[in-house]
Amino acid sequence: MIDIDYLNFLENILTDNRKEKFLKVLENRTNHFTIAVEDIFQMHNTSAVMRSCEVFGIQELNVIEQRYGKSIDKEIAMGAQKWVDINTFDSITNCVDTLKSKGYQIIATTPHENDCLMEDFDITKPSALFFGTERDGLSEEILQRANGFLKIPMVGFTESLNISVSASIIIQNLTNRLRNSKIDWHLSEEEILVKRLAWAKNSIKDIKRIEERYFSENVK
Length: 220
Known about the structure:
Strand 2 (about 60-65), helix 4 (about 75) and strand 3 (about 85-90) form a beta-alpha-beta unit. The protein has 9 helices and 7 strands. Helix 2 crosses helix 8. It starts with a helix and ends with a helix. It has a 7-stranded parallel β-sheet with strand order 3-2-1-6-4-7-5, with helices on both faces. The chain has helices at about 5-10, 15-25, 45-55, 75, 90-100, 140-145, 165-180, 190-205, 205-220, and strands at about 35-40, 60-65, 85-90, 105-110, 115, 125-130, 150. One of its GO terms (biological process) is methylation.
């Protein structure tokens, strides 16, 4: 449960414009879709995917670090790491199992003879969209455990796109369709409160000192 008094205390430190911006952005946030990236060798690509998630309203990004344990490129992410939840996993199995337990179907974004074209994709089901490495694509484990496959229609000679470009195209397309649908895709009231608290903390300098003062004065 969220401590509403504590949330109000922190939000009173913020400007009205900041608080209004939080509410406006949260109106367009969703967990109906989530994104997963697998062992991305060039970390700036993961950072760019994170930025696309933030811009188009995807709240969670799942990062599998089975082989490369690289950190987010903050310059590329341009602050997106403050507003998007990053879930890290040390194995493909752990990531897939976790997302399936949350009710997501696993969708592999990879050229495949049984692929569904982007415009034909069924957006009604909560989906975890997996993107693979630049060099090898998605692993065999993800392909075997996927509930479906998704591809971007292409009409040129080039058969693939950079992962960050592919993710941006797919995320924009699917979230736009979602917002124009009658699907209940919004965050719950509890999820919104959780994000308001987290974002308030991310926006306040010297938050640790302020937290210590608040709890020393208010917790008995």
